[in-house]
Design a protein that fits this description.
- The chain is of the alpha/beta class and about 300 residues long.
- It is built from eleven helices and twelve strands.
- The longest helix is centred in the middle third of the chain and has 26 residues.
- The protein is elongated.
- The relative contact order is 0.10.
- The N terminus is likely disordered.
- Keywords: Phosphoprotein.
- It holds the Pfam family Response_reg.
């Protein structure tokens, strides 16, 4: 899952707001109001590529008109709330309709709030600030439950939960899914030579590399100890191999500073690619990835093995 953290009023003013409305006048008005409040605003006049834009922008909140050409706001809201990477982004629906049934439907689909047209400047600013403040508190609570305290990545329990959800989602779409297990080579020696504080620094540094390397291609988590897991979706086997090799090389080329010493580490990666996910269990794909990891380590380490 991709989360935007907002801490305090000053940072709320730097939040990114995505606005979708095919009414050019309303779109311009909302954009100007939100920019005056200090937000970074991304205006769009249609929802055709909205999911792709949300992945790219990672907005703090979305203002979404119900009536749009092609795909309407209800369908977009449903899509966003049905995707694990976007489900937590708060949505404020915009409507010029007077029917309460429309508002009811929007809220049932997962929208946080709604604003009726014509747009009122004070109301818009207040509702956006309210949703950002609420989301800040929710993210803090959620982070405590799903994040690993040291690395900031998803913890073991939540990583498995995501994997199970992704398997079920890709089973419906008949598309592939992959899981990679990553282990730091000779991590015990690092702790023995440089101490556990430096070992923690290595774990945190590796986590940052993982996050940056797979930001648009996968979901990373700490599996346990010096082991990490990554869920890859929408990638063929060759693409998976390239991503894993790129990750391995990024780690190999990185240096960790301790005093006057520069320390390099390597990782071994075992990945399992599943083109057919029908009846697939999360423990089975993890088991096969773990076996591939064992093969990578036993054959010399600093390698990628894919099954």
């Amino acid at each position: 899952m991709l989360i935007t953290k907002i801490e305090g009023e000053n940072n709320m003013a730097n939040a990114k707001i995505l606005v979708v409305d095919d009414d050019k006048l309303s779109l311009t008005l909302m954009t100007d109001i939100l920019k005056t409040e200090g937000y970074t605003v991304y205006p769009f006049d249609n929802g055709s590529s909205i999911l792709e834009m949300v992945y790219l922008i990672k907005p703090s909140a979305i203002l979404l008109d119900i009536i749009l050409p092609g795909i309407d706001g209800f369908e977009i809201c449903k899509m966003l709330k049905g995707d694990i990477q976007t489900e937590d982004i708060p949505i404020i629906m915009i409507t010029g309709r007077t029917h309460s049934s429309d508002v009811k439907k929007a809220l049932e689909l997962g929208a946080f709030d709604y604003i009726k047209k014509p747009i009122d400047e004070v109301e818009l600013a207040a509702r956006v600030k309210s949703v950002l403040r609420y989301n800040e508190y929710q993210e803090k609570l959620k982070a405590m439950a799903i994040k690993d305290g040291l690395t900031g990545l998803y913890n073991h329990t939540f990583l498995i939960e995501i994997l199970e959800k992704e398997i079920r989602k890709h089973e419906k779409k008949s598309s592939s899914i992959s899981f990679a297990m990553i282990d730091i080579d000779h991590f015990k020696k690092i702790n023995d030579v440089y101490g556990h504080l430096f070992g923690d620094k290595v774990l945190k540094g590796l986590s940052d590399i993982l996050s940056e390397s797979v930001a648009n291609f996968g979901i990373a988590g700490r599996y346990g100890g010096e082991e990490f897991g990554i869920i890859f979706t929408n990638s063929d086997k060759e693409g998976l191999c390239n991503l894993c090799e790129k990750l391995r090389k990024n780690v190999q080329d990185n240096e960790f500073q301790i005093g006057n010493d520069k320390v390099k580490i390597t990782i071994s990666i075992g990945a399992c690619f599943k083109e057919d996910v029908k009846d697939l269990k999360s423990d089975e794909i993890i088991r096969q990835a773990d076996e591939a990891l064992y093969k990578a380590k036993s054959s010399g380490r600093n390698k990628v093995e894919i099954v």
